[in-house]
Amino acid sequence: MKCLFTISIILFSLASAASNKMDMACVTEFPSTSFVVREAADTVIVEIFNHNGPQYRPVYDGVVTPNDLGTIAKRANVVSKLPTILRFEWPRTKCEYHGPLVKSCMGTTDEQDVNGFKVSGWSFTSSEVTEKTFAGDFKSHKVAVHFSVDGSSYSVPMTYQEHDCEPNRYFRKNILQ
After folding, report:
1. What is the pLDDT of residue 84?
2. Which UniProt keywords apply (predicted)?
3. C-alpha to C-alpha distances, 125 to 22, 43, 73, 128, 132, nearest whole angstrom
4. Domain residues of the chain, as ranges?
């Protein structure tokens, strides 16, 4: 009986660990900016694909005033010089699973030389958002990577409709081309 109990605990733990994978992908219906997150050994890899080129990469999320336009233009100028695909890697120990589409990785990644810039990530976050309105409840997902380029802070934030994100998978290569 004790042996059966031990085996059931081990099997439950394995099933629980398998369900806590960081794998997820978010892509808009007509691909624009896609986030693909996957585990490989003890590493979590976060890749951002800008299907229409880096000049279409989101650089800001929030309220914009006329005073912000100069700052946003400066960010866009730098971020558009980075490649179409950005890749950041965190040790799995620096990442947390909060739910199928609610995950995070914190801590500075190894610095990369990207198109002559020194780039390092410092966080990846994903969240589920529910907006209650007179017309009903609407769910969406927010995904962002925060990183530094030559010591200055940047981010790639993206909001997706509920059906645009899926846990425990990443997209076929033909979607990402």
Report:
1. 96
2. Signal
3. 11, 16, 24, 11, 23
4. 2-176
- φ/ψ (deg, to 5) at 5: -60, -45
Contact (CB, 8 A) for 87 and 46: yes
Structure tokens, 177: 């081309």
Cβ-based neighbours of 84, under 8 Å, separated by 6 or more: 49, 50, 51, 53, 54
Instruction: Name the one residue in this structure whose structure tokens are 């965190």.
Output: 90
The strand pair at 85-91 and 43-50 is best described as: antiparallel
Please report the DSSP string for 64-127 in residue order.
--GGGHHHHHHHHHHHTTS-SEEEEEEEGGGEEEEETTEEEEESPPPPEEETTEEEEEEEEEEE
Length of the chain: 177
pTM: 0.84
Q: Which amino acid is at 74?
A: K
- Tokens 């990469």, residue located: 57
The closest of 173, 170, 140, 174 to 157, measured between CA atoms, is 140
- Assigned token pair, 87: 């890749």
- Residue identified by tokens 């699973």 is 97
Q: Mind listing the pLDDT tens digit for each residue in 108-130?
A: 999 999 999 999 999 999 999 99
